[in-house]
């Protein structure tokens, strides 16, 4: 019945919603969507065109810089050749000139003067010359021969450039230089478009000369060729159609994803600068503007739907009232009722809903009553169980004191027994009072290590009587926190007492402190029986205990004290291996003043 009613109202709501949506769509939504689609397409094409043009400008500027760099190196080499040709200098003078140029221009690793037969006449190197005139695979650039790029022993790019001395008909030899192209690589590395856009430098014959992506630099060392690169092909096709074309762009898909590539040719060198950028980054602004426009259209659409919804709200108001009432009941507000004036099926459903809410209130009151009785019963049983033993001891001692009043030793034993049992009764009363009303605490800077050392020393006798080894592992130096010494000592004593009771003779209990970042960590660990996993989640709750005796208030009070001092306490345990309680407090830079220390000692 309930399922059928739910389906009925769901279908009813869908019918009303569909009716409003169709009405608004016919009136204004469809024209708005058409206008939005045209706007989005226009915006996308315009912004993409702007991005492509911007990347082309970057490639052009990079091409100009590379052109200036290489042209400058070639001019330097020609200048050296002019200084050496036909001057009649001897070999030592020529060596000195070459060495001076190498020292002055760091781009050249070596300059060597060769005669017509290719024999070294002078060189900037101390030893034998290592460069030769480039072979048939060399390119002629601005009147000089340049060999293909390679990498030296330091994995840096290099090339050999040769200048003919004299004329082609009457050669005077060659000036050959090894050019270090590390700065060229750096220029290409510095070309960035966005965060992931990089540049490539491609030679006249398609050789990859430099790559701005560190992961792709090995391709330069391998001597890869990019003749089939989409942008290079696009530039070749554009040049075939119009020889004056020096730029081109293309969009393509590679292993790294969809890319936008642009190319700019360096006419004087015949090289090409390629700039690649992921489309997701290149068109991010366009996508964001497109999304914003879509959001604006969507908001307008929603506004129209909202207007139509408000006009027709009277048709679905009873259903909305039932939904609000159901949500209120789910949130625990049982006083919520629905007001539906109609007498149809929805009105009958509202009446049934109100009856159900009244019944839930009655059931909740009954549950609260039974819960109070259960809690009172647990407290009563715990009190009877815990108080019966000290009261019985006091009663037995009172009966014996009548007969043995003249025995001085027994009177002293009677006094100790009564004081001990009354102290136990007082502790239980204090626990009950502190659960109802937390202890007011005063925070002062105190040294955790010192307090724990003194407490452990005072409880050594108790541990020895139980046949246990009580150890302390304290962090080096003082650990100052903001706390209440009396309240914290109560927590420590309670945890140590629990550890003694849970550990069999021969076991050990460890009090440990650690300094971690800006926190002081206190651990009290034992090698006892441990706590079952199903009891760990609620061990800090009131009236929960793992002992045969007691109200189960010790850990609950300890947790309240620790939290009052802005700390945390957690427990980790493994059955048969032991339990560890861990407390964390923020370290403080404050230190107890002499006046505070004196007043605290006086109060203690």
Note the main attributes of this structure.
seven-stranded antiparallel beta sheet, 4 domains, 604 residues, disordered C terminus, five-stranded antiparallel beta sheet, Beta-Lactamase, alpha+beta, 20% strand
Give the name of the CATH superfamily of the largest domain: PAS domain
Structural class: alpha+beta
* Number of helices, where a helix is a run of at least 4 consecutive DSSP H or I residues: 16
Mean pLDDT: 78
Strand content range: 15-25%
Strand element count: 19
Oligomer: single chain
C-alpha end-to-end distance: 72 Å
Q: What name does the CATH topology of the largest domain carry?
A: Beta-Lactamase
Q: How many domains make up the coordinates?
A: 4
Shape: elongated
Q: In which range does the helix fraction lie?
A: 40-55%
Q: Tell me the Rg in angstroms.
A: 45 Å
Low-pLDDT stretches: 594-604
Topology (SSEs and partners):
Layout lengths: L1 H83 L6 H14 L3 E7 L5 E4 L15 E3 L2 E3 L3 E2 L5 E10 L4 E10 L1 H9 L7 E5 L5 E4 L6 H5 L7 H12 L5 E8 L2 E10 L4 E8 H4 L1 H28 L1 H18 L14 H59 L4 H29 L7 E4 H11 L1 H6 L3 E5 L6 E4 L1 H18 L5 E9 L2 E8 L6 H4 L17 H11 L3 E7 L3 E9 L7 H10 L1
Parallel strand pairs: 14-16
Antiparallel strand pairs: 1-2, 1-7, 3-4, 4-6, 5-6, 6-7, 8-9, 8-12, 10-11, 11-12, 13-15, 16-17, 17-19, 18-19
Helix pairs in contact: 1-7, 8-9, 9-10, 13-15
Structure explained in plain terms:
- There is one protein chain.
- The chain is an alpha+beta fold and 604 residues long.
- The chain folds into 4 domains: 22-292, Beta-Lactamase, CATH 3.30.450; 323-373, no CATH class; 382-434; 439-603, Histidine kinase-like ATPase, C-terminal domain (Heat Shock Protein 90).
- The chain is built from 16 helices and 19 strands.
- It has helices at 2-84, 91-104, 182-190, 218-222, 230-241, 279-282, 284-311, 313-330, 345-403, 408-436, 448-458, 460-465, 485-502, 533-536, 554-564, 594-603; strands at 108-114, 120-123, 139-141, 144-146, 150-151, 157-166, 171-180, 198-202, 208-211, 247-254, 257-266, 271-278, 444-447, 469-473, 480-483, 508-516, 519-526, 568-574, 578-586.
- The strands form 4 sheets. Strands 1, 2, 3, 4, 5, 6 and 7 form a 7-stranded antiparallel β-sheet that branches. A 5-stranded antiparallel β-sheet has the order 9-8-12-11-10. Strands 14-16-17-19-18 form a 5-stranded mixed β-sheet.
- Mean pLDDT is 78; it is low at 594-604.
């Amino acid at each position: 019945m309930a399922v059928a009613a739910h389906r009925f109202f769901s279908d009813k709501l869908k019918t009303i919603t569909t009716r409003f949506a169709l009405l608004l769509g016919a009136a204004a939504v469809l024209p708005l969507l058409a206008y939005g689609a045209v706007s989005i397409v226009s915006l996308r094409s315009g912004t993409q065109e702007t991005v492509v043009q911007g990347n082309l400008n970057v490639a052009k500027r990079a091409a100009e810089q590379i052109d200036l760099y290489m042209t400058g190196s070639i001019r330097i080499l020609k200048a050296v050749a002019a200084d050496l040709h036909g001057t009649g200098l001897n070999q030592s003078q020529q060596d000195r000139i070459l060495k001076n140029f190498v020292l002055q221009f760091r781009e050249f690793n070596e300059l060597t003067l060769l005669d017509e037969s290719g024999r070294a006449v002078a060189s900037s190197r101390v030893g034998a010359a290592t460069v030769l005139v480039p072979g048939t695979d060399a390119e002629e650039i601005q009147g000089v021969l340049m060999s293909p790029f390679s990498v030296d022993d330091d994995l840096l790019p290099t090339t050999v450039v040769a200048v003919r001395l004299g004329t082609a008909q009457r050669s005077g030899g060659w000036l050959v230089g090894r050019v270090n192209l590390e700065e060229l690589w750096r220029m290409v590395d510095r070309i960035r478009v966005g965060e992931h856009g990089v540049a490539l430098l491609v030679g006249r014959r398609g050789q990859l000369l430099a790559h701005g992506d560190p992961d792709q630099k090995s391709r330069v060392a391998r001597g890869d060729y990019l003749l089939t690169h989409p942008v290079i092909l696009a530039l070749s096709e554009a040049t075939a159609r119009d020889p004056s074309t020096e730029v081109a762009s293309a969009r393509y898909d590679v292993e790294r994803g969809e890319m936008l590539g642009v190319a700019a040719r360096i006419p004087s060198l015949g090289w090409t600068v390629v700039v690649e950028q992921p489309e997701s980054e290149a068109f991010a602004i366009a996508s964001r503007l497109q999304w914003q426009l879509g959001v604006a259209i969507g908001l307008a659409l929603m506004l129209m739907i909202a207007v139509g919804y408000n006009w027709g709200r009277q048709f679905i108001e009873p259903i909305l009232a039932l939904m609000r009432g159901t949500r209120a009941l789910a949130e625990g507000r049982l006083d919520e009722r629905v007001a539906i004036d109609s007498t149809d099926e929805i009105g009958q459903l509202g009446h049934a809903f109100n009856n159900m809410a009244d019944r839930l209130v009655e059931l909740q009151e009954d549950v609260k009553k039974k819960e109070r009785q259960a809690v009172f019963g647990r407290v009563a049983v715990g009190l009877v169980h815990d108080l019966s033993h000290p009261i019985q001891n006091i009663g037995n001692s009172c009966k014996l004191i009548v007969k043995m009043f003249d025995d001085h030793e027994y009177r002293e034993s009677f006094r100790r027994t009564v004081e001990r049992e009354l102290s136990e009764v007082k502790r239980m009363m204090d626990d009950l009072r502190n659960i109802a009303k937390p202890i007011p605490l005063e925070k002062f800077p105190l040294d955790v290590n010192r307090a724990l050392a003194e407490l452990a020393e005072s409880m050594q006798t108790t541990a020895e009587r139980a046949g246990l080894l009580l150890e302390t592992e304290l962090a080096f130096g003082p650990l100052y926190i903001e706390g209440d010494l009396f309240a914290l000592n109560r927590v420590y004593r309670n945890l140590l007492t629990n550890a003694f009771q849970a550990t069999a003779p021969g076991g050990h209990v460890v009090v440990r402190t650690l300094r971690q970042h800006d926190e002081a960590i206190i651990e009290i660990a034992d090698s006892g029986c441990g706590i079952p996993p199903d009891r760990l989640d609620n061990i800090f709750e009131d009236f929960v205990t793992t002992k045969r005796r007691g109200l189960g208030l010790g850990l609950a009070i300890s947790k309240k004290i620790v939290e009052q001092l802005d700390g945390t306490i957690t427990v980790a345990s493994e059955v048969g291996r032991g339990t560890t309680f861990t407390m964390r407090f923020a370290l403080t830079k404050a230190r107890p003043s002499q006046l505070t220390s004196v007043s605290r000692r006086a109060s203690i």
